[in-house]
Amino acid sequence: MFKALKTYKLLFLRLIAIVVMIEISIYFFKIGLIFTAVFGLFFVFLLIREMYFYVRNFVMLYDKTIASILQNDFTSDFTKHKFNKSYDDLFLLYDNLKNKQNEEISKDIIYRSILNNIETGIIILQKQEEDWDIFLMNDYFSSHFNVPKVSKWKYLKNQLPSLCEIIEEGNFQEIKTAVEIRINEQNMQTFVLQASRTEIFEKDYFIVLLDSIQNVVEKKEKDAWVNLMKVISHELLNSITPIRSICQNLQDLVEQDSLSAEDLEDVKNSVETMLRRSNHLQKFVEGYRKLAMLPSPKKEKLELHHLIDIAIEIMNPLFRENQIEVVNAISFKRYIDVDPQQIEQVLINLLTNCIYAVKDTAEKKILISAEAKENRTFIKITDSGNGIETEIENKIFLPFFTTRTEGAGIGLTLSKNIIEAHGGYITYKRENEKTIFEICLLED
User: Fold this and answer.
1) Among 128-142, 274-288, 318-332, which is the least confidently predicted range?
2) For residue 262, how many other CB atoms are within 10 A of its CB?
3) Confidence (pTM)
4) Distance CA 218, CA 26 (A)
5) Where are the alpha helices (DSSP H) in 358-442?
6) Is residue 221 pLDDT above 80, yes or no?
7) Across the strands, what pairs with 440?
8) Which stretches within 255-329 are classed as H helix?
9) Half-sphere exposure of 371 (CA within 13 A, CB side)
10) What angle do CA 424, 428, 429 make, to 5 degrees?
């Protein structure tokens, strides 16, 4: 504000100087000093000319700066004018807007780079009156569907009519479905189509995501195989490496002419170790076979509370041995349609895990509760253990993954497979420092 007043003050002083010089010139004319009066008028002319160029430059600079801002053109260089303090606020505004534009451009480049490197087809449409423009099409969409990066919806419709018709039938509203699209007269491919609509700063956008089901399945299968092969190779090497070493030692012993009592003891210990590792390897293979050959559930109607009591009764010797309190808190009567042997196995697996979880705790308690919601039955098994470490939470259902030296690592995996075969799911979570495994079973 003070800088603006200073500018007005300079203009005002110029005007006063011009008026004063005109009055002085008129005075000299009146007293007959013609030459002095003419000189005074010439000086007035110079003052008017100087004020004209001052105002013109001032207005032109403001006009140029404002025009640059309005047109988002920040290429102009006003360095030579920055010595004039009258323009400080104007140049500060210009520089701030220039920095913001550079920041937005940088963000836009980064976001587009991220979207272009995602293996998901993405197009974003922007509403323009009654038509749609293509605001963004990522590289994956363009290359996978062999579509040039067009700017209008009608051009995209010519390239991918099957996709565009589905979107138009949904009236550009939220969609989540599977679609079959033929690309370049190839076989039909199935994609997961997810679309949503949003409004940002009074501009209407429609976002479309396309994932190839084949690619998703292949990636999941590949990840599963990699994890499985890691576990299998780890278990095999853990058994084969010591067995090979022992065999080499035995070969050295039998090549001797005679065996001492100490050598015979070494042979005996070696054979016992080989037998122990072989038994472990056999259990590992049997566990894999059990997972791979899980039979379909033979369902029958059973009362939930009774099913829980049977599982507790089976585990009671272990509970008494470890001084664990088990409470069946299910107070309502509920019939569920399940395979009794398989669900019993799941309950035994989870209760066994609870025994190990509370083994080193002061309060050894296991609580079994349930909740019925519409056609769902939720069975919760809560223990007072320390819980599962955060870094391994996402691995507990993987085949053969275990933190116990004597564990086979198939209990939770088998339980998960059984519950999923029943059309339900099993989850792990922590609530109020308690460890909870929750089984959800669906009723037909």
Assistant:
1) 274-288
2) 8
3) 0.43
4) 98
5) 411-421
6) no
7) 378, 425
8) 261-292, 304-321
9) 7
10) 130
The secondary structure of residue 322, as a DSSP letter, is T
The residue whose two tokens read 């090497």 is: 237
pLDDT value for 2? 39
State the residue for tokens 């919760």.
Answer: 380
Buried b or exposed e, range 58-68, using 16+ CB within 10 angstroms:
beebeeebeeb
Taking alpha carbons only, the member of 309, 381, 380 closest to residue 344 is: 309
Q: How far apart are CA 29 and CA 38, in angstroms?
A: 8
Asked if 348 and 407 count as a contact pair (C-beta separation under 8 A), the reply is no
Q: How many whole angstroms separate alpha carbon 371 and alpha carbon 377? A: 6
| Three-state secondary-structure class, residue 376 | strand
The answer to whether 389 and 397 are in contact (CB under 8 A) is: no
Interacting residues of 160 by C-beta distance below 8 A, sequence separation 6+: 145, 147, 181
Rounded to whole angstroms, the Cα distance separating 382 from 54 reads 84
Helical spans, DSSP H, in 293-390: 304-321, 340-357
Helix residue ranges, H only, 117-212: 139-144, 153-159, 161-169
Instruction: Answer with the residue of higher pLDDT: 58 or 347.
Output: 347
N-term to C-term CA, the chain? 76
pLDDT of residue 220: 62
Residues 6+ apart with CB under 8 A from 68: 74, 75, 76, 94
Confidence of residue 1 (pLDDT cuts 50, 70, 90): very low
Nearest 10 degrees: Cα torsion 404, 410, 411, 416: 130
Gyration radius from the chain CA atoms? 41
